[in-house]
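User: Second chain of the day. Same drill as before.
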Amino acid sequence: MKHSNVNSLDYGNWTRKKIIVIFGLISLVFLALTYFSLFFLIGAVSCLITFIYLVYTYYRFSPRGGNLQNKIRDQVFINLDWQGNGSLLDVGY
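Assistant: Same format as last time:
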């Protein structure tokens, strides 16, 4: 397989939307449970902080928010000691 143009690679976003939604829903459940006991407020606040952090990282990795994914990839390619011979394997999940 021939190498593709580095700028044409699209990794999506390293922060998954599914995980963001899960933490958002869990924080809402904990928030609803605070009606029965304020003890659940600890879980609600913890999940809400995680939710906000994940939304922020999703934005920062996106092309609109700083494009950190491409910047990290470019730094890896710049620092590789490679003269164009051989192959490079990018293993994703």
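Residues 10 and 33 are 41 Å apart (CA to CA).

User: Great, on to the next one.
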